[in-house]
């Protein structure tokens, strides 16, 4: 008895000591990063930390560690780039989970969550034409009825995510959901304005951090993760694969395309840390994006189409990998913050 108690005590002590060491190390890392004046060395250290965290499976995220421009691109350049992206042939639509479907373009994604009482769509692509061809068309190919779209969650107020929303809202009376900050942004001064995108949606459902959209048997938790825009929504929801439940987070905005803005990068860094904690607490083991270059969704859907039934779902990357991904993005944001601070 005494022996067992001793062993338990020792184990407890070890665990506590380990936790203390980990906390100390984390505290030191953060304090060092906060206290150390930005320099080429701190930039390199953050890029190195991101590269380590990316291991071999998350290297796609390291594009975020490349230097970001201090100013937004001029309109003509933006339009030219967008037109080229939109002109790329779209991948086939596909089913990622029992209740989650990809109905996106090559560059930008849209996701349909099937519930017992209709469909929650996440993002609406660049234009009405894309919403018709890829969202409506894709759903029909997958056996889904676009008339069942009840909500369109727009992750953030850039036109590659809202361009098709007014069309779907008007045609199916779908409610358009956005954060208060991004409703205000699109109503007052668009961060990116181009006639290539569909017009912004009219103000509808405004959500705040922690709100949920519930439809039938499904509830989507909405986290506001400021950074890419100040009201970016990162939805968290359950998915099932072969009847097994998993928890997914869709990171709602990734790139640093806002120019030299150190406070905004600080918000981004805070968002990655906070969502790392959320991911750990909720055992989130699936990380999705609204751009397939970030989450590799096209390759994963192609793999799913090839593999035998019952094989492991490539979208399930595991909780540690989700935390590493948030760490990679946070370290890249810290590298960029230091670069801007040096300019
Ligand atoms: Zn964006």
Question: How are the secondary structure elements laid out?
Answer:
Blueprint lengths: L1 H34 L4 H15 L20 H13 L6 E4 L2 E3 L8 E5 L2 E5 L5 H14 L7 E5 L5 H4 L2 H8 L2 E5 H9 L16 E3 L4 E4 L2 E7 L8 E9 L2 E8 L10 H20 L4 E4 L2 H4 L1 H10 L12 H24 L1
Parallel strand pairs: 4-5, 5-6, 6-7, 11-12
Antiparallel strand pairs: 1-2, 2-3, 3-4, 8-9, 9-10, 10-11
The chain binds zinc ion.
Give the key terms.
disordered N terminus, 11 helices, 343 residues, Metallo-beta-lactamase, Chain A, globular
Computed CA radius of gyration, to the nearest angstrom: 21 Å
| Percent in strands | 15-25%
The ligands bound in this entry are:
zinc ion
CATH class descriptor: Alpha Beta
Which outline best applies?
globular
Mean model confidence by pLDDT = 91
Number of domains: 1
- Number of H/I helices: 11
Strand order of the largest sheet: 1-2-3-4-5-6-7
Model regions low in confidence, pLDDT < 50 over at least 5 residues: 1-33
Summarize the structure.
The chain has 343 residues and is an alpha/beta fold. The protein has a single domain (36-342), classed as Metallo-beta-lactamase, Chain A (4-Layer Sandwich), CATH 3.60.15.
Characterise this structure.
A hairpin with a 2-residue loop joins strand 1 and strand 2. The chain has helices at 2-35, 40-54, 75-87, 128-141, 159-162, 165-172, 180-188, 262-281, 292-295, 297-306, 319-342, and strands at 94-97, 100-102, 111-115, 118-122, 149-153, 175-179, 205-207, 212-215, 218-224, 233-241, 244-251, 286-289. It is 45% helix and 18% strand. It contains eleven helices and twelve strands. The protein has 343 residues and is of the alpha/beta class. Helix 8 runs antiparallel to helix 11 (319-342). It has a seven-stranded mixed β-sheet. Strands 8-9-10-11-12 form a five-stranded mixed β-sheet. The chain has a single domain (36-342), classed as 4-Layer Sandwich (Metallo-beta-lactamase, Chain A). The protein binds zinc ion (ZN).
